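Reading is simple: each integer encodes one residue's backbone shape. The lines below illustrate:
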Amino acid sequence: MKNFILTFLLLSAIALISNAQNTTMKTTRSAENTVREFLETVRSGKSPERASEFMADSVKAHQLNAENPEIVTRTLENYTQHVEEFIQAYGHYQFEITEFIAGGDKVYARWKQTGNQTGDVDEFKASGLPVTEIGSAVYKVSNGKIIEYWVQIDRKGTEIQQQRNSSVASVPIKNSLPFPDAYISGDALYISGQVGIDQTGELVKGGFIAQAKQVMDNLGSVLRKSRLHYKDLVNVTIYLTSMDNYAELNQVYRTYFDKKFPARVCIAVKELPRQAQIEISAIAGFN
């Protein structure tokens, strides 16, 4: 009888431990999925308006600055605005998760964000040159929503890049061409063909992919002047000097959208202005 009771107690303890482990694993998987989708969808700048799918209505944000740590409350509206400010400053930036660790209801993530500074940031004027930000955060998740996070940004590293970029002499681009970047008619914005020139007025180096990214960034800059985004595009026309670049085009192009793409046509041509390899014109709608 004594052995039976001991066996029963041992099996019960094992069952309790197993159940606890299963619960922890489920919590970890849920937190991991929530944070990864949040980073890839919202923080990446692809669809900042979808913050409500991954964040609680009110989130406590710990800004871990060595000289002035502070805690702010993020609502869904001001977090969306926070990401849109990144887009205004750096265009359609590239966002890469470089480390990701989940345990229980907390997830640690580190990322690299790279974009061209198309807007003024603090005392640094828009340079059109690349700026890379390294950041990391620990997110706490409850019931499938982020409720709190602790974030650190390499602000000094970003500032050094901005200082360096501001010291680079740039030549103002004189718009002597007989057409505007865009024209508004009715409820639509008609965007003139964009090629891969940067703020210096020169075609970017680095081959087709570099040009394709610059063209899409230029397209985004024109959209933002009218308070529109890539998601507002309804029709896109792409001109390529070689259809051999079609696969690389799609590789770059799809990163500027979430799930919904505008109507599109792609045309092969003999040559393009400035000896560019790609040109894109588009139509966007005012909702």
The domain at 182-285 is CATH 3.30.1330.40 (60s Ribosomal Protein L30; Chain: A;). The chain has two domains: 43-166, 182-285. The chain is about 35% helix and 30% strand.
